[in-house]
Amino acid sequence: MAGPDIILSIDGIAAVYSHAIAALHGVTLDVRRGEIVALLGANGAGKSTTLKAVSNLLSAERGKQVNGSIRFDGHDVSAMSPSRLVRLGLVQVLEGRHCFRALSVEENLVTGGLGRGSKRAEIADDLARIYAIFPRLKEKRKIPAGLTSGGEQQMAAIGRALMARPRLLVLDEPSMGLAPLIVQDIFRRLKHLNRTEGLSILLAEQNSAVALRYADRAVVLETGATVLEGSAAELRSRDDIKAFYLGQTRTRAHAA
Fold this sequence. Notes:
By secondary structure, the protein is of the alpha/beta class. Helices cover 39% and strands 27% of the residues. It has helices spanning 47-54, 82-88, 105-116, 120-133, 135-139, 150-163, 180-197, 208-214, 232-237, 239-246; strands at 6-17, 21-32, 36-40, 63-72, 75-76, 90-93, 168-172, 200-204, 217-222, 225-231.
């Protein structure tokens, strides 16, 4: 059993797609309350599959967890619907900034509160909080999300997740396709939330440089299994680990 300081415990999980394609075969990691854990590895290492398993979303892509266990705050994730996990405080931002493009930025944010079951007054309070965290969203609140920049869409996706008042925020490739300055800005704001509010964060990220700068600990996956874990400072200082397991990550700079 995980200790009381552990909010998420993943123990030896295995997963397959289409009943045949092995994606994970031994992923183990813990996230302590109030820490940021980075899940690192090359393309195809199993990062996104692990995060989908954490939110019990594998079935949406013909996937299935076939071994091991995942517990969130003592709850067996496999026995919970994704919507129930959100109400319990486990909220994920999927890869690709999945905004409702025809809805305004503010309407996108409100959906996060509705998914949690927030009342009108709570939604108003949470909107004010999100606009304080991401002032650019307040400026663009009436604009359709599909007409905003990539960076603003990512902020809206994260803001929508924060509207659900998570205790564990799960992020899949938050830096993908964004300019370096936007990436740094988003990570600084997430770190601030972590420090000031004790928000626990698990993030999968190919940009190892930025992930290791802001995370407390890191776990490295290779071909669907955990191969290494340690403090972010330790991994950041070891060139052999960065070269062998993480590769030379180039910052993905596109329009933000």
